[in-house]
Every structure is written in structure tokens, then in C-alpha cells.
Amino acid sequence: MDHLYEKTTKTTEIFKGRVIELQIEEVELPNGKTSTREVVKHPGAVAVIPITKVGKIVLVRQYRKALDKVIVEIPAGKLEVGEDPLDSAMRELEEETGYKTEKLEFILSFYTSPGFADEIVYLYATDKLEKGLSQTDDDEFLDVLEVTLEEAEQMVNNQTIHDAKTAYAIQYLKMRELKKP
To answer: What is the pTM of this model?
Structure first.
């Protein structure tokens, strides 16, 4: 696979914010020519598929400025520097929904936009929820919803759920249901 590798020869930092960094990377291509790549650096994120004791999926509804609209998502959040993804997932679940759990099952991790960003999302699931208190960040406003799998599928179809991590989570739950005897 070395014949596909692009060697970075120079990195220029363009922007460094609270959530992302933007870099321009000059690269040497496998054929010896050079090019530039715009790269978004991100510390990573976690997402949780929470299922209540009665089998409902816990979701959050919130406004997303980048989209300029309200969408429904599974609880998720950015990893803090050096934070373990499992610890982050436990924290985000409680902060956003008020639910706590003693056990999260790791499902998988995936890159969100590998063409220009290094963000990786660690996805967990749990059906062992205990009610607690939500404690959202000062700049975070959301509603907590509890929906059936069928209702969640409808939300995907009408694009109320319109992000990849949540659509994947709904698909994962649907496949899991199909595998049950």
C-alpha cells in the first residue's frame, strides 16, 4: 500500500479554534508530483445509542448552526484532550439526556469525513439506563425524546434525523432486531 501514500512535506496552520484546526498540507504524491490538501483536525467524538427499559431509543433534538436547522440525533459529544472515549460517552449520555448507565457496549468507530477531516467517532450502546439529571453545557439547548424504532425510521425517512451517526445507529438497531429469533 506504500504506492498510495502521500508524504507531507510542509504543514501550515490556518486556524485553531475550540473544536477544530484547519491546516494546509503540501504533499508529495505517489507519482513524485506535489499537491496541497486542506485538512480539518478534530479531537474525536463519542455517540451513544441509549435504549430505555421499555425499548425506546433516547434521542436529542437540537439546532445545528452549520445546517441552520433543528435535527434529531443520538446523544454525542466531543472528546476532551486525553479523555478516554468510554468515559466521554458516559459523561455525554448523562449531560445530554439525564440518563446514566454502568455499562456501555462498544459498537465500532468510524471516520466522519475522511476526504478532509480526521474526526473519528466512537459509538456505544446501552439498554441499562437509570434516570438522573441532565446537565447540558451553558451554550447547549436541546429536547430529549424517546421514540420507538419505527418512529426513528420514519424520522430518517423524512430527514428529521439527517446525520450519519444517527442514521447508522437506527440501521444498527434495525439489523439487531432482524437477527432476534
So the answer is: 0.93
